[in-house]
Amino acid sequence: KQEVTQIPAALSVPEGENLVLNCSFTDSAIYNLQWFRQDPGKGLTSLLLIQSSQREQTSGRLNASLDKSSGRSTLYIAASQPGDSATYLCAVIDSNYQLIWGAGTKLIIKP
Amino acid sequence: SQTIHQWPATLVQPVGSPLSLECTVEGTSNPNLYWYRQAAGRGLQLLFYSVGIGQISSEVPQNLSASRPQDRQFILSSKKLLLSDSGFYLCAWSFRVLRDFNYGYTFGSGTRLTVV
Asked: Residue B51: which residues within 8 A CB-CB, separation 6 or more?
């Protein structure tokens, strides 16, 4: 059974710092991995999707990497800003085409 | 481009009243459609998914039901709401074709339901 774990559960850093959010999964048989952002009381916004054949994806200050063999993905945020404060969710699409979710990392960027 | 619409954004309903939440997708055909619930401080739970008109799969036994009367319309319903039905409900869609799963899932903006 696929399980997705996100570490840390919460993170508070000063503005301007670079930071890394971690996501691990137990079964390497995935179709892709998707990172989402959720602001309080809002829906989910897709940030990056990494296909199973890819190693990384970049969008602006965000870079997501994928190492299927070790069951790990990282989301790197460069030059963090207060507007980056949100909960970041990692999800894998497993062999049954279902989304398996991590519990999320709550990120606070202090001005 | 594809868009997903979900309404209403917020809803306060008394216990025992009926519920109808609607979700529509534009810009694609034959999508997979999903209803998720997020209880306060908890993760996302898949409630229903649909691979076609009239085809509904339920992931958890509950007081809710789903219907797909049209290809791009997904409705979440209840005949009598319970207090435990309170939560944040999210609709999502994905492509159905295997290779197109590389495009991932797209979520609506959610409905905050409070049962009082």
From this structure: B32, B57, B96
Roughly how many angstroms between the first and final C-alpha of chain A, as a whole number?
Answer: 41
Number of Cβ within a 10 Å radius of residue B114: 12
**CB-CB contact of B4 with B91 (8 Å):** yes
Q: Are strands B3-7 and A99-101 parallel, antiparallel or unpaired?
A: unpaired
Is the Cβ pair A104, B43 closer than 8 Å?
yes
| B88 at A interface, C-beta within 8 A | yes
Tokens representing residue A96 in the block: 């049954």
CA–CA separation, B85 vs B110, rounded Å?
15
Neighbours of A57 (CB within 10 A): 17
Nearest CA in chain A to B95: A97
Sole residue written with tokens 């670079």: A18
The three-state secondary structure class of B97 is coil
Interface contacts A/B by beta carbons within 8 Å: 48
Question: Average pLDDT in the B45-60 region?
Answer: 91
Q: Which residue has the tokens 């497993």?
A: A94
Instruction: Tell me the pLDDT tens digit for each residue of B10-43.
Output: 999 999 999 999 999 999 889 999 999 998 777 8
